[in-house]
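WARN  no MSA supplied for this record, continuing single-sequence
INFO  ligand: zinc ion
INFO  echoing inputs
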Amino acid sequence: MHTVLLSGKERTYRVGKILCVTRNYRAHAAELNNEPPAQPVFFLKPASSIISQGETAVIPPCSRNCQHEVELAVLIGKWGKNIAPETALSHVAGYGIGIDLTLRDLQGDLKAKGLPWSMAKGFDTSCPLSDFVPAAQIPDPQALGLSLYVNDELRQQGNSAEMIHSIPDLISAASAIFSLEEGDILLTGTPAGVGPLVSGDRLKAQISQLGTLVIDIR
Ligand code: ZN
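INFO  complex generated
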């Protein structure tokens, strides 16, 4: 069973599904030579991919290019389907820091063959998550600075204000296809600066008002 903690409330949530959105920051879409889609495109990571603060992510031996993507993570607090953007934020229990680890080489091979790329995104340890901060403490989730350091070197920097599809729009679009349940997590896309990791690296992901998430790579 995989759980996350909503700090302050000291409440744990059992994680159901992790919904991730592709290309939600223009500069990141451009760095991978992708056109950002008009409608959000989602993929899933299994709950078994979660690791926590201070744990170690293990790159599967089949990959030579595991990359980091720092993302604002949204914890869903109540069930909903076909949620309107206007009421979407009432479904949010809290915000946290996520890292969407991606086997870019495997993803590229699978995409080129038109095959699903779940293996490149959902492998064990591919979803480091911090504890979550109650939504009531974050007045504007679209004004949070994101940064990611590898061995204390700044690699990614952005702001949630730069999202192409806002958090309410993402919740609304996702809930048209997937019922959102208590404990589901939405990863909202990554700013530019993604890059490869090697064994021994230490990742430090920071989001303003949410703290710091540190993990090691092996
Ligand atoms: Zn991502």
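The two ends are 23 Å apart (CA to CA).
INFO  checksum written, moving to next record
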